[in-house]
Amino acid sequence: MTFFGRKKRQDNDIENSSGSGHKRNVSTVSATQVLPKRCVYVNMPFPQAELDQYGEPKTQYAANKIRTSKYTLLTFLPKNLFEQFRRVANIYFLFVVLLQLVPMVGGQTDPILAALPLISIIAMTAIKDAFEDWKRHSQDNSLNKSRTIRLENWNNVNIPHGQSSRLGKLLNLGSYKNKGNNSVSGYKGSRSLGESDLTKNNAKWTASRWQDVKVGDIIRLKNNDSIPADVIILSTSEPDGLCYVETKELDGETNLKIRHCVSSTASLKSENDCERASFYVESEPPHSNLYSYTGVLRWPDQPGIENDQKIEPVSINNVLLRGCVIRNTEYAIGLVIFTGVDTKIMLNSGDTPSKRSRIEIETNFHVTMNFIILFLLCLGSAIADAIYYLKPTSSADFFENGGGNGDSANASGFFTFWVSLILFQNIVPISLYITIEMVKTVQAYFIYSDVDMYYEKLDYPCTPKTWNISDDLGQIEYIFSDKTGTLTQNVMEFRKCTINGVAYGLGETDTTRGAKLANPDQNSKVKDGVNLDAEKELMLTEMTKLFDNRYISSNPTFIDSKLYQDLRAADRQAKAIQDFFSALALCHTVLVEHPDENNPYKIDYKAQSPDEAALVGCARDVGFVFLERFQDTLTIELMGERKEFTLLNVLEFNSTRKRMSVILRPPEGGVVLLCKGADSVIYERLEKGRQTKLREETLVDLEAFANEGLRTLCIAYRVISDEEYNVWVKNYEEAASSIYDREEKIEQACEMIEHSLILMGGTAIEDRLQEGVPECIATLARAGIKIWVLTGDKTETAINIGFACNLLQKDMLLIVISASDKESAKRQLDEALDKFFGPNAENKNSKHALIIDGETLKHALDKKIKPQFLELGKRCQSVVCCRVSPLQKAKVVGMVKEGLNVMTLSIGDGANDVSMIQEANVGVGIAGEEGRQAAMAADYAFAQFRFLEKLLLVHGRWSYIRIAEMISCFFYKNIVWTIAMFWYQIWAGFSAQYLYDYTYIMLYNLVFTAFPVMFLGAFDQDVDAKTSLKYPQLYKRGILQEDFTKSKFWLYVLDAIYQSAICFFVSFGIFQFGSSHPTGLTNNGLTDLGTMVAGSVIATVNIYVGLNTMNWTWMAFVIIVMSILSFYAWVELYSIWSSLGFFRLDLILFSELDFWFGVVLAVFISILPRYTVKYLHKTYWPTDTDIIREKIRKEKKTKRKRIIDLETEEDKVPITGSGRILDNNSFNTSSITINDDMLSDSSLSDTPIKKEQVIPKLPKITTIPRGRTISLRSEEQVYHMQSGNRQSFTGFAYSSEESSFETFRKSVYRPTKPHLLRKTHHRSNTTTAIEEETINRKSYLSTTSLNRSQTLPNTLFRRMSPSPSRSPSPNRSQRYDDDRRLRSEGEEVELSVMSPSTPSTPSTPPS
């Protein structure tokens, strides 16, 4: 641009902040400002202060060789062992192994055998880690050896040249001096750059590896090349210095971005140009912000003037980041500024914050309790041993030298304690953690492989990024969702606009069409629907009368022939329309693409924001076509007439500004600022005292658009004098040239020019809901999950989308909190709590929704007010937060997560959602139109919001139930095994004598009992996926955490103690007298007893696990039977070895009926109580799951009976032509049905779940009666806490009880699950009946949740009266004429100078 080449004024910000202690104000740049700035020199000598005593640069930069792997060959073993022994359980087992090396404690145990289980677990984990790290190494090596083109045979003064002789430096053996140039003179051949005196002309482009690239190198990138480091663009092949880059690998966005070369270096095209140029870059330190960079390029001015330098600011738009790809650009030359770990992609490559599942955290309690049980067992054995020591007739007097384990009772007890610790060590399961990891890996694979969550359009499956929190998916109570791109498609369509107070656009939204279908009586008074096809033809005819629009798309979304009728009038309104659409065609940063080479009139626009592409696309269809951007020239075609505008400045959009502006010079001269942004932002900057009536009318139109669910923006302009612009641009240059606090200074400069704006009008864009969103939200609500929507849209838009997606319903009272200060926010929150939830609240049983905007939210998140806000939000069924910032989203999630101690899930699709995704217990990213930043930062990623339904209700619930039962069974089986050895100590004098052979102990957790419990954790199902989705209320068990409790743990412990006693004492009783074998051997030895007890325990625990398995398949049966038989197979194999006391044990035991009788009897008595309790519980106190499982079993039985009856009647009943054999009414109607009273409860409907309350075993939920009366709040649905006024909501809402809307819903939102539309009798596993014997059962199940209406699940929308919108109506022309008459009498509206006709001189604002 023209002002980039001007002479640099004194830059105090840079000169005074060269030190590392620079103190700065708040900035978006990270806190790396405490680091010193970086200077990179090109063909210039280093300042002496930056050289060491050998003439080398003091600062050494990171190499470009990257390593993302954890280990190397040298560090793998120590580092991996350190990582594994950070687990307390592994330290415990290592301590036990070391304890067995002590002769007095573990002398009877082979140390190798003792360490084998621990070694196996450590080895398996190490192999897994090594394999994962080997893949990282392979990827790193492939990347580091990639090729790029680098300038060689020239002197890069930024890198030391004696690095290989550091020892020589220390010994002062080498003589080093700076190899850079000693002087700089003016570069005569260039307008702007200095030239080195020493020109060798030896430089050439050479292929090089990425890992060899250094800071200060100059590289040449070709089209489709990946960028090896962060580089500043010096020049490109494009005449205007543009470079197109794809950032998909960096932020997931697939649309191309525009980058510009530094204008002062645009003439560097060849090797010699680069070798002769002389300049340096003053850069900020490395930081992780992908969207921010501040630097300055300096070079000498005209020769002979000392200390005078020219300067050009360098921003992120002049930088290519590592990981991006050059597109549509022949070549680009760049200067390497950051390498290796200093590049932004590496600084952002840190892992997602480490998350631990709730069950994993609560497992610590179980482990602690097991340690306590172990301590009590050891302590009891030690005390008992000391007592036995003091007995005068102890066996130790006869068999042990010294009478026991020590010289005294205390010493004997002390040694017995530690020996018992070795004996009972298996009570803490050594293989628990590795089993959990394996099971969760399998669960992650199932999620990834689910075709129902695969999105074919993007070829994107549901991808688990964090594998260890799958069970958390089954306990989610609060979901925090973004709106745009998450609930909606983020595919924008321009529908309506308001220009100079007149609304245009006849396109109806899904919301308005649905309202008409849902309530035809109320809408009969409203204008009948318009034939859009006919209106489109009329519009094209009217357009043709004015001009020929060759660039119009085949399917324009904006339709209104009245626009061209007004254009043809050639009056003030026509000029306003021209200026409005000209602004849309000019105020943007889009790229022009020609997808069809054979059709030059087919134009597509690529933009960073879908809104921006929709605005420019609509301007094209109307006849105001943006054709191209060449250097600083914008070419547009206005109603067939081509015009060129000079682009002076672009004031870019960001989440703080909420607006973007361009400063142009029209062909007629002058300077014009065009600005578009949120209505609140634009209205604050309008010229005071002008356009009062126009502002009100435009605001009414915008509110009407928002009530139809449309996204609105305002368009404004300002004419600037040359004198004002020249003064401002100097301030802007200084701000843009700052290294520190550049963004704040630029924002201040923008405020100086973006004021006194003239309002032109507003736009309305439709962002349609994603497919299946209403069904999904309704199902999740029935599951007991509360959904909060956090969006940046205005309140009216968010509310209408809330109604459309079933988040808000007609019978809800919307509590609107809007405050400008803390006192007002606190007062409104207190009043809302007292009025609607206090002791004197009106209609306590009604449903409420909370609506709060970002400004109020800022105050509500204050520590003093947060409790009231949290309490109010907890009591409301739905919450919508509008105009929120990314930081506020994260704070809201953190407030609910910590304040209520609940499981939270955040879901979003954009970079502004990353903070809340990482804050929640589970983060889900949508891979959509805004890129994949959210998907990359999330724990789970998929392409459509509706997939959340199956992820939570099916996979999440399964994972929670499986993991909870698996861990409980894991602890149970180890306690049974260990306590049985404790019973034996009574007869062993508490001498810590082993009951089992040591090989049994070693293989117990690795082979004999490992696979049934692992199968339970990986494959078990209580009900299938279809049933889980049909009865979402089953999910509430996870919210209430009923499957993994402390009471359940202690019940399993009691079960284990009982079963261990049975297994031991039955075997001990049978073997007490022994029996003789034909060979002369007896079977009353310790080995025989231990084998019988071990066989009983192994069979008991495996059958017990099978008893807790709910989905008995052939695989489950085979695994349990094979696990039991594996023990006897091992005894058979082991007895062949000539081991003392074990030789041919199989012949002694397996041939005795006593042995088999004892095992069967012990197993039967052990399992019988558990089986009895389970039977009684399922029969008389069933859970929801038991009821549904019984229902499914009866349906299957009924279905089989029908098939048999049909086969029997085939020969008797002739088949009709239609193939129908049996009428539906002839089916047996005596089947049972679930009674509504049995499945009704209100305990979870009106008040949130409180973890501190004692929850009954089977709380009830009350359903809303099917014949609901008209809501009391249908006319006064919105309550504004600020004013205390009620009002009727002016938007469109739907009623889930209106069947008239069903046809429309089916046509717009195609159900994603086939079973949602099938009739019940078509299901393979379900019918409409269930037996009356279940009438008195209690259940969580109800047809609704959170008091939602009792209807079919696929009738989801609610209805409200249509908006009294001013959108195009029959009397619009009359209104326009009245408005024009009023303006002619009083108000003067000033317009811009951009119309194709001869512009009028901007009028002076009235004083």
From TrEMBL:
Q: How does it sit in the membrane?
A: Multi-pass membrane protein
UniProt xrefs under PROSITE patterns: ATPASE_E1_E2 (PS00154)
* Composition bias type Low complexity, residue spans: 1358-1373
Q: Main localization of the protein?
A: membrane
In this protein, the active site sits at D482 (4-aspartylphosphate intermediate)
Listed EC numbers: 7.6.2.1
Q: Which residues bind ATP?
A: D482, K483, T484, E612, F653, K676, R711, T791, G792, D793, R883, K889, N912, D913
> Where on this chain does Mg(2+) bind?
D482, T484, D909, D913
One GO CC term, this protein: endomembrane system
The places in or outside the cell where this protein is found are: Endomembrane system; Membrane
Keyword Ion transport in the entry? The reply is no
Which EC class is this protein assigned? translocase
- The Basic and acidic residues compositionally biased stretches are 1374-1386
What is catalysed by this protein?
A: ATP + H2O + phospholipidSide 1 = ADP + phosphate + phospholipidSide 2; a 1,2-diacyl-sn-glycero-3-phosphoethanolamine(out) + ATP + H2O = a 1,2-diacyl-sn-glycero-3-phosphoethanolamine(in) + ADP + phosphate + H(+)
Domain (P-type ATPase C-terminal) spans: 935-1183
Concerning NCBIfam families, the annotation shows: ATPase-Plipid, ATPase_P-type
Please identify the protein, giving its name as recorded. Phospholipid-transporting ATPase
- The protein's organism comes out as Rhizophagus irregularis (strain DAOM 197198w) (Glomus intraradices)
